[in-house]
Amino acid sequence: MSEIPDNVVIVGKKPIQSYLLAIANHVANGMNEIIVKAMGRNISKAVDVVNRSLRGIANSYKISDVNIDTAELELEDGKKKYVSTIEIKLKK
Hints:
This protein has helices spanning 16-28, 43-55, and strands spanning 8-10, 33-39, 62-74, 80-91. The chain is an alpha+beta fold. It has one domain (8-91): 2-Layer Sandwich (Translation Initiation Factor IF3). It has a four-stranded mixed β-sheet with strand order 1-2-4-3, with helices on one face. α1 packs across α2.
């Protein structure tokens, strides 16, 4: 499995505040680009995290790019499952 870059926030099952804190840390560290990623049901949470952070802690950032894709996952029984993904890039 590949290592996650420092500027990436992967949105999952944790509360929204956890991801807002991660973005706040990136902003405090002076990162020029922050990437928010999510899959499946967590896509709406990722959009909410980005919107809230742009209105508050990351108000000096703008959305520079949004990528929407479909990932192919292989289940334990060998079947394939397709899951939507999103990647939102924020830049100063």
